[in-house]
Automatic annotation (TrEMBL):
The lineage of its organism: Eukaryota, Metazoa, Chordata, Craniata, Vertebrata. It comes from Maylandia zebra (zebra mbuna). It holds the Pfam family PYRIN. Residues 1-89 form the Pyrin domain. This is Pyrin domain-containing protein. SMART domains: PYRIN (SM01289). InterPro entries: DAPIN, DEATH-like_dom_sf.
């Protein structure tokens, strides 16, 4: 998985869904033991900035896992499935 694939997923969110996505990144219960991202860092962050913040905060595999959890919370199972499929396909390509 590459950061571009996370960006593509976030670009499929409406503006309201994206704001909700960022809100969930500030909530500890969604992220389990992972750190939250400060509101001030996310407030004006565009989609690309948000991906960068997530990768910096959680590493790429962690950012993918956080994205999956948040997509579940905002009821975007269609994006969750496409992200999972992309991740599985990437894993298969790495083993070839």
């Amino acid at each position: 998985m590459r950061p571009e694939e996370l960006l593509n997923t976030l670009e499929d969110l409406t503006d309201d869904e994206f704001e909700g996505f960022k809100w969930h990144l500030q909530q500890g219960e969604v992220l389990a033991s992972r750190p939250t991202i400060k509101k001030s860092r996310l407030q004006t962050a565009k989609r690309r900035d948000t991906v960068d913040l997530m990768v910096h905060t959680y590493t790429l595999p962690g950012a993918v896992e956080v994205t999956r959890k948040v997509l579940e919370r905002i009821c975007r199972n269609d994006l969750l499935q496409s992200l999972s499929a992309s991740s599985e396909q990437q894993g298969t390509n790495e083993h070839v």
